[in-house]
Amino acid sequence: MPENRGMPHAVSRLRAERLERSAKPFLARGGFKRERCAQCRLLPSHCMCALRPLLTTRAGVCLIMADIEPLKPTNTGWLVADVVPDTFAFGWKRTEVDPALLALLGDPQWQPHVVFPGQYVAPERVVHTVQSPPQGAGAGPGKRPLFVLLDATWTEARKMFRRSPYLDAFPVLSLETEQMSQYRLRRSGRDDHFCTSEVAALCMDLAGEHLAGQALQAYLAVFTHHYLQAKNQQPVDWQSAGHQRLREVCGGAGGASHPGNATLPIGPMHASSIAMDGLD
Ligand SMILES: [Zn+2]
Q1: Which residue range(s) make up the domain with 76?
Q2: Does residue 16 belong to any structural domain of this protein?
Q3: Residue 130 C-alpha to ligand 1 middle, in angstroms?
Q4: At what angle do helices 241-250 and 210-231 cross, to 10 degrees?
Q5: Which residues crowd ion ligand 1, with CB under 5 Å?
Q6: If residue 214 lies in a helix (H) or strand (E), which one and from where to where?
Q7: CA of 144 to the centre of ligand 1 (A)
Q8: Model pLDDT for residues 5-55, shown as the tens digit of each residue
Q9: Cα 88 to ligand 1 centre (Å)
């Protein structure tokens, strides 16, 4: 039974640590400076906490975040941590590595996949599917996929990738997709650039976690709507396409009529089959 409500998730904790370290308060350019909900970062009038899906996933996500990234109000690694219970987050530094990050990458229950474009990597490292080698002679269900995402601008991500030798041992998962980004908040000017939560959604799909993948996509659409409506001083449309999609995907568990402790009655092995039955 997942219990990921009420407790600050990894990105939230990283943001708090980063705020503590910063000499002067971070004010996002163009962001709102009024009171925000501590759980979803939105204005209280546009809070989307009641819509947070409660899922169980076998796959995990390890976010390695550029320094300022946890402070950005539009950072979507936050949304990944909202949806995927086993989301870990670490701040990236050029000169040192968090020992907890190394411990996670070395944990035998996980098979890390560094998600990065294949054209920048030696071909023998590149994979296009999720690798799940068995965990020992007993040949159990295999290791759990851990998707290592560099949560940064593209320029920063390239630098982080080059200067993180502890990632060299792992396969590089190169995503190929024709989907276009629906993310309107921080356009990169290139159609093949995805925001972090979209990348996580594609990874979940590749791992067979279709419910989590669809929930992430819908949750991003809902966040984008709430964020832009708040910015434009417009009310939330609780019947927007994103809200409807999220309700379809999560079977009402993400609906505003079930605030607080809504739970999906599914275990880790059943998540994807329920999504398939319900939607395909
Ligand atoms: Zn909230």
Answers
A1: 48-119+143-209+266-280
A2: no
A3: 34
A4: 150
A5: 37, 39-40, 47, 49
A6: helix 210-231
A7: 30
A8: 668 999 999 999 988 887 655 555 544 466 889 999 999 999 999 999 989
A9: 21
